[in-house]
Structure formats: structure tokens, C-alpha cells
Amino acid sequence: MDAQEEELKNKVIEAIKQVYDPEIPVDVFELGLIYDIKIFPVNNVFVLMTLTSPSCPSAEAIPSEIEEKIREVEGVNDVSIELTFDPPYGTEMMSEVAKLELGFL
Fold first, then answer.
1. Cα 52 to Cα 68: distance, rounded to the nearest angstrom
2. φ and ψ of 27, to 5 deg
3. pLDDT tens, 55-82?
4. CA-based Rg of the chain, rounded to a whole angstrom?
5. DSSP strands (E only) in the chain
6. What does pTM read for this prediction?
């Protein structure tokens, strides 16, 4: 990944960190819901993500909000969000920040 792609990826991560699961006071990135972020030619962004559960009440809202925030990042051409439940989400996917915030540490 070149420096421009790395910088764009960091901006995308910052945008994603503005999105919170409505039931948990931690952003979706720190929760570990983002499995992969790829920057393709012409600044097309691909995000592979999951939700805390397949029956999450915010199943539509969270991916839409993530896409909206990424589209606001200067330089982003297009955004593709893919939802997966493989592997299933578990609390071990949370960052140390999220675990501290939620009392897991």
C-alpha cells in the first residue's frame, strides 16, 4: 500500500470511528465490527464488516451510516460495504479501548 492509500485508509478509519452501535457506547471500529478495509484504484473503498448479531436492531442503520461517513472523506470515489457473519462476532474482537470502556478489563 502506498503512502496515499495508507493516508486515505487512516481517514476512512477515522470516519468509521464516528459511528456507534446505538446499544453500546463504543464506536464500531473499536468494537471490532470492521474485519477489513481495502483501498482499490481510483480510491474505491471496500469494507468487510459484521454486526454484534444477525438480529441486531440496527442491521440496516449501522452499515448505511458507515457508508455515509466514508463518502464524506475527501478523495473517496466509491464505497462498497459487505456484511458477513463469518467468523461470528465475539467480545474478543474488541480493542483494549472498548474492553476498558465496557468493563471487560
1. 20
2. -70, 160
3. 888 888 999 999 999 999 999 999 999 9
4. 14
5. 34-40, 44-49, 78-83
6. 0.93
